[in-house]
């Protein structure tokens, strides 16, 4: 019985494959069916048992860093340590059942050839299984459990990214058989990034830009778009309005693949959260589990930087909060953080203050474009 229990639920959890495939719906349905049949086989065996679910451990202690020896792109990924969801242990029994409920829902979505967001899935599960799903976080974590079990991307499960992202500037977008969208003519609101990753993958892209500029804040993005900075500095502007969502990261990765010679430059606040946002674009995030590597890009830190403090009025300095220090501690413990970023972060902590991009308005509302141009020259990206 012991051997049966150890092997029966290893559907696709090959210990040498710690990544999630993008697979067609038919393959995902087949994997879910195999999971169910294996489970029923155990229950109907002469020595019935309920097997554990072996999942790749998504804790930060199981993360490793690829240093990009053959390319300029480094990324975080999960190593080969496993954890389990067990119906026989009180602390994981509900999590065990949640996995099966989410797989059931995803199977139904794929059969209907639909796409749902994580939020839509939460409300469906809340109504269907209120004893097991009481929060969005439970759904999000269970989706990652299913990704880890079946080793497929969440998009392959029929789960669509909910996008906050915008793009503006010197970029022409065209879906197959659709009209061309000129992102330089979308005004200060920019062009909304679709949450449908398949649509993003099939976009026809054209640009005469020389840079891609990732902007942390929506308000700064709007200022740059309104000032048409992309005409002064031939560029594509992209923002996720804060911490990056999957769709925005996917589009940035798509742009990096389509235009590999364009430097990707990040404009973020000088604080631990700004650096964390930059690092998520640059390295991926462990929170994405087996999909983390898929969205990594070679993003450069344009600003704000410590050497900009001399142009910032003292009144604009804001003391670091406990949350800032917590983020800094987490970043400093990461093996993927490169040495010059580490030094910059240590300066932030020692200085004890944070600076937001808006502090540059001290020099005038039209100063941001001049600042970006100066930093590009200083960093020799020209």
TrEMBL record:
Lineage of origin: Eukaryota, Viridiplantae, Streptophyta, Embryophyta, Tracheophyta
Cross-referenced InterPro entries: Spo11/TopoVI_A, Spo11/TopoVI_A_N, Spo11/TopoVI_A_sf, TOPRIM_Topo6A/Spo11, WH-like_DNA-bd_sf
Cofactor requirement: Mg(2+)
GO MF annotation list: ATP binding; DNA binding; DNA topoisomerase type II (double strand cut, ATP-hydrolyzing) activity; metal ion binding
Provenance organism: Juglans regia (English walnut)
Stretches of the chain forming a coiled coil according to its record: none
PANTHER family xref list: MEIOTIC RECOMBINATION PROTEIN SPO11
Name used for this protein in its record: DNA topoisomerase (ATP-hydrolyzing)
Active site positions: 123
One Gene Ontology term, aspect cellular component: nuclear chromosome
Similarity comment: family membership: Belongs to the TOP6A family.
Catalysis: reaction(s): ATP-dependent breakage, passage and rejoining of double-stranded DNA
Enzyme class: isomerase
Record EC number: 5.6.2.2
Domain of life from the UniProt record: Eukaryota
Keywords associated with the record: DNA-binding, Isomerase, Magnesium, Metal-binding, Topoisomerase
GO terms (BP aspect): chiasma assembly; embryo sac development; meiotic DNA double-strand break formation; meiotic DNA double-strand break processing; pollen development; reciprocal meiotic recombination; seed development
